[in-house]
């Protein structure tokens, strides 16, 4: 079985960020592409689909959650299998955007899905240290790790901060199947946003804080239970399905100005990166890779400037 070291991961992520920092005239999206147990590659592409650039490749299989840039673009948080073994625990790391000053923030229990607070002072994450998966918040240096969900036997996943830093959207299985909830950052005032018999997951806030995009595996017009991208107001009203294809769509990511959403769609057996207007119109395919293209993340600021 192939191994990958944290050092190799650092070099990979640092190379991505250095490539991004070279400057650009248009918004760009960074994404991962690779096959299971195969070489993986990170690419950068313009939001109009032009100029796809291979930033770095590596030899060997590894898994990461992120990279997630801090709001000021100076640091990056990510989850990595600590020893490089496929069955080793996952922990959260943070480092400077140039790859220096690597710090391990968590230790044991499987910790993943880091999400920066808007001011960069805290990181929300998921931990399995309490048997089931719960959401925690810690300071950006790893100190003061506090559990903010507490539902015995039910998993709570995928935290996402509101733009004002006052609330966190997340996925919970407390009502039998995964649904989208919102809570205050201290875990109080939990409110359920979605309520149906299908899986709802991967919530992301719009930049103005008025809407949440998410993925649901409910039956749409095609009646196939295929995964589609939805948006809903943050009070749970006006739920709208934006995509409905046989391939299924996942991993929505709002552009910084809120006008577009990047996402992944299954095409001919592989996931590819698409972008659409925030109302679901003008869906355009950006990639045509021979392996899955996953985890799109918008990059609109220069790094290290």
Structure in words:
The protein is mainly β and 305 residues long. It has one domain (6-299): 6 Propeller (Neuraminidase). 5% of the residues lie in helices and 46% in strands. The protein contains 1 helix and 24 strands. The protein has one helix spanning 6-20, and strands at residues 28-34, 40-46, 53-58, 64-69, 75-81, 90-96, 103-104, 111-116, 122-130, 132-139, 146-147, 156-161, 167-172, 179-184, 191-192, 200-205, 211-216, 228-233, 240-241, 249-254, 260-267, 270-277, 284-285, 292-299. The strands form 6 sheets. A 4-stranded antiparallel β-sheet has the order 3-2-1-24, covered by helices on one side. It has a 4-stranded antiparallel β-sheet with strand order 4-5-6-7, with helices on one face. The longest helix has 15 residues, at 6-20. The N and C termini lie far apart (41 Å). The model is unreliable at 1-14, 16-25 and 56-63 (pLDDT under 50).
């Amino acid at each position: 079985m192939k191994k990958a070291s944290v050092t190799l991961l650092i070099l990979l992520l640092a190379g991505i960020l250095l490539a991004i920092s070279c400057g650009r005239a248009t918004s760009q999206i960074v994404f991962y592409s690779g096959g299971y147990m195969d070489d993986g590659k990170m690419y950068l592409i313009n939001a109009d689909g032009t100029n796809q650039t291979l930033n770095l490749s590596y030899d060997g299989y590894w898994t990461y959650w992120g990279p997630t840039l801090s709001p000021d673009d100076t640091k990056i948080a990510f989850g990595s299998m600590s020893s490089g073994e496929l069955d080793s625990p996952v922990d959260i790391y943070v480092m400077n955007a140039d790859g220096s000053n690597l710090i391990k923030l968590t230790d044991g229990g499987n910790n993943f899905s880091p999400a920066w607070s808007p001011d960069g002072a805290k990181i929300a994450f998921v931990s399995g240290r309490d048997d089931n998966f719960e959401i925690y918040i810690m300071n950006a240096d790893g100190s003061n790790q506090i559990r903010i969900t507490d539902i015995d036997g039910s998993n709570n996943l995928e935290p996402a901060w509101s733009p004002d830093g006052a609330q966190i959207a997340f996925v919970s299985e407390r009502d039998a199947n995964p649904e989208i909830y919102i809570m205050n950052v201290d875990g109080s005032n939990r409110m359920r946003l979605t309520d149906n018999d299908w899986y709802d997951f991967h919530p992301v806030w719009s930049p103005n804080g008025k809407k949440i995009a998410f993925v649901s595996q409910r039956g749409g017009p095609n009646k196939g239970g295929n995964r589609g991208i939805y948006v809903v107001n943050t009070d749970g009203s006006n739920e709208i399905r934006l995509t409905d294809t046989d391939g299924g769509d996942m991993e929505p990511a709002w552009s910084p100005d809120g006008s577009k959403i990047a996402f992944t769609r299954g095409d001919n057996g592989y996931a590819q990166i698409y972008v659409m207007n925030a109302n679901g119109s003008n869906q355009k395919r950006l990639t045509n890779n021979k392996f899955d293209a996953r985890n799109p993340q918008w990059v609109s600021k220069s790094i290290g400037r």
